[in-house]
Request: fold
Amino acid sequence: MNICVLVLEGVFDTGLATVLDAFTTANELAALRAVAAPPFRVTLVGMRAQVTSAQGFGIPVLASAACPAPELVIVPALGYKMPEPLGAALARPDVADACVALRRWAAGGARIAAACIGTFVLAESALLDGHEATTTWWLTPFFRQRYPGVRLDTSRMVVSSGQFLTAGAALSHLDMALWLIRQSSPELASLVARYLVVDSRPSQSAYIITDHLAHADPLVERFDRWVRANLDKRFSLELAAGDLSTSKRTLARRLHDVLGKTPVAYVQDLRIESAVHLLKTSSTSVERIAGMVGYADGVTLRTLLRRRLGKGIRELRAT
Reply:
């Protein structure tokens, strides 16, 4: 398989190295274990003659013309973690040129995969409009505001939609690479995961720090604080809106725009998050914890926890 890795200025060192190591390991193991899988031929290309990584290392790249008809294009992350510097990076001329190249490769039938901040570069090309995608969890509000046409689901680690593949936060580069290797040979992907000692992680949900996302918007942040202060009580959207001096409609719209969730779904996520934390860090009974997070009894809490676990298992089997 001919793979073109698009390396832009300030590329995230770990992400690029992870992708290259995964495919190199796959080629080595295929030969060592006689696995019937086509070799992965990887070419690094850039939009400029010289590319420096986020850590200051020079990356040898070829011009994009060196990859005229790739079967797969991979966009590793850029080394920017916060909205303001990322926004400035996305406005660079080399990123605009990369978007043109991505559209050309997509028109030629190439599958395009991006991980972490690389998903912003792919979304910038408008190729993700109308498609499902994921991105790094802590930049969810910024992504939603910048690319409203993308159907974002950041609970998932890897999302395949049409000819596009997106992966979540920084180390999801490996999840993405294993997914791509699995399309050629499930046996080989399993071997690579074993040799690299990697567990399957179908969801980002366990890693998301909910209050970090809430801080992206003043009203959502106030709602987050209000919910946490009233977690043991029956939730009322009308009461929440009144206490926050806003309307139910405005509150619901803001939560959807920033987090992609309804108020009820957000409250349930906080309840489950708090319950899991208490179960892990205290000896309090399930019955008592249920009351502390707003559920009538332990049976309800156990059912919700099983559903959450079951969803993770189903996502794992689908990858």
User: Anything to note?
Assistant: The chain is about 50% helix and 10% strand. The chain has two domains: 2-206, 209-318.
